[in-house]
């Protein structure tokens, strides 16, 4: 069970303390930037992150700041500023010994047009080559459904790329996480690390009930072959919710295993 530093605190050391106290097995770190805290490329911040990795395993480095910059330009090419940021993050990932660099595609990086998707693929292709050379996986997440996600991944055409399943983001986009797991998994492109959180928006005029997304998790775990789960609700003001979410995930894992053994 993994906890997301960016959903706990911009202070990475504080986030690690909270994650360990809540029972997390792993901590996913954020590269920082803008309102997300200092950039990890700062030597002092990187040294502190290396110390954190000695206390709790850090398998993933996320670069959420790319959502503020934009992965691609409107005319269908990669945004050099975003690529440069991701290259700096990749260097930090090497130093930390993480196995996955997580690249999100939201807000200014949202691939809403054919040209932006082409530019996104261009950026991911460049980063995949560098990630592969470092022995890392490049994990891409967006609200695209399985067909569009697979089309984008196939245009990148690199074995280092995997697609992220995030329950809340898919549900907010009107997509079925179980269907995403089936189709993307069948293509061999699903990252075996699930992101689980409540949808942010109402469905049919009814607001989401906190925690109900975990009810479907046992089936999702069985269909996805996941090796880990990242709980990703907002824990900035509710660290007790983090402990609850981790406990719900552990229960779901037990239920999924029990079903498999029948």
From TrEMBL:
Keywords recorded for this protein, A-Z: Isomerase
Pfam family, one: AP_endonuc_2
Name the record gives this protein: Sugar phosphate isomerase/epimerase family protein
Annotated coiled-coil segments of the chain: none
GO terms for MF: isomerase activity
InterPro entries: IolE/XylAMocC-like (IPR050312), Xyl_isomerase-like_sf (IPR036237), Xyl_isomerase-like_TIM-brl (IPR013022)
Start and end residues of each Xylose isomerase-like TIM barrel domain: 18-249
